[in-house]
Design brief:
heterodimer, A: mainly alpha, Four Helix Bundle (Hemerythrin (Met), subunit A), B: mainly alpha, Helix Hairpins
Amino acid sequence: MSPILFWLFSILMLGFGVLVVLHRNPVASALSLVVSFLGLAVLFVSLDAYFIGVIQVLVYAGAVMVLFLFIIMLLDLKAEERRSWNPIALVGGVFVTLGFAALLIKVLHRFPDADKPFPPIAGSLSQMDDVHHVGLTLFTNYNLPFQVIGVLVLVATIGIVVLSKKELK
Amino acid sequence: MGVTLNDYLLVSGLLFTIGFGGVLLRRNIIIIFMCLELMLNAANLSLVAFSRFNLGTDGLPNYNGQILVFFIITVAAAEVAVGLAIIVALYRARQTTHVEDINSLKF
């Protein structure tokens, strides 16, 4: 992927990520998060992970964000009124966040493989090949975890039904 | 000058930082939940970048990393569903999504 496209979509993703945090209206935050996820899906495709890119769009930007918007509408959330900030919490939060970012840049700076470009893939990897390889790995080496994930999803479904009942007993 | 692994890790780390800052600074529980999703996705980006960087012996990307991302996305989807159900139950009990109004363990 050309550097221009990479930085374009990175900045798109990070910019809308910042908007998620800054927007006062939860609906605007959720829609910004959709755009951020779409930018992330483009980055996945740029790393030749076509399958992950597609399920990022379908599951995250699609299903998960629809669920978020549905809950926001269900609860009828309005834009937050301006509340007085606790100055200690504000300073502490900004300080910890910036400190984390500074530490991260310092660590990445010392990373030994920092300036190596990505090695080329042997042959050519088409979209179908990628899905084929992911599926093969998933259903051979990772068959047991895959079944366990199925049980997890079932448990989550039952849990939601129990949580959503009118009277919690 | 192509795109290096470090560029992807930097973007991933910055995305994580944005989510982290959102969790610390925002007071609306739904926004906090969205920021958690941002942090999960930042981890996914790192995993996919490493999977593409460390090619396997057959010269293809290391698919173990992508399988982990697949599992993270599945677990995150289940987590979002359960979390939002808890938020709805909380809203029924307290009529608020503001974390500073939810400060007692029992009610």
